[in-house]
Amino acid sequence: MRGKFITFEGIDGAGKSTHVEWAAALLRQRLPAGATLLTTREPGGTPLGETLRDILLHRPMHLETEALLMFAARREHIAQVIEPALSRGDWVVSDRFTDASFAYQGGGRGLSRAKLEVLEQWVQEGLQPDLTLLFDVPLEVARERLAAARQPDKFEAESAAFFERTRAEYLRRAEESGGRIRVIDSTRSVDKIRAELEEILASA
Ligand code: ADP
Ligand code: TYD
Fold it and tell me: Dihedral of CA 121/123/126/128: which sign?
């Protein structure tokens, strides 16, 4: 049986990375016999992808170059890691996937949805996450959390307007996703969020 593909999304500072390994440990307790679960991330997830991540997070570039490199890293990630795992029956949990390209390069930077859809079709050939958890917070909350947590990378240094557009595009996609994208109110405490995640993941 084919494995499940679960992705985590949200604007920077929403709190998604706080839950990835915890959710993976929860899911591992109830995998089908013989299956394993791996956690991975985008951009990244392969040696080449991690090199592209370093470039993407630190070097200025044309917005289409940025989109193309995101999808180049994704192509490698799908070929080397995601698709082989799912075909073996293993489960994959990824910290970000294509919804981030629509939200950041599309919503944030203004690249047309049509161009992103071409890349999505080319690179994914129909592959979609089975479930996406979208960690949602107002911008001010994300900013406060980030300021306390780390030095900003290229994206995290973007304007408030950029993140408003990015968040809005995530929420728009969630509405149109037919239930694939579950919006998690991430302003709550870590414990409250985990209680909801337990419920959602119980039926994953
Ligand atoms: P993301 O991966 O979405 O960028 P992180 O998980 O790295 O965000 O969280 C950003 C910061 O916010 C971290 O310092 C983290 O400890 C803190 N944080 C995460 N979730 C919560 C929460 N529910 N309440 C308060 N602080 C949180
Ligand atoms: P992330 O791993 O969440 O950063 P951090 O480890 O600092 O929490 O994501 C890296 C950045 O890349 C994030 O700002 C969002 C951005 N990104 C895109 O712009 N497009 C994409 O397709 C992906 C996957 C990420």
Answer: negative
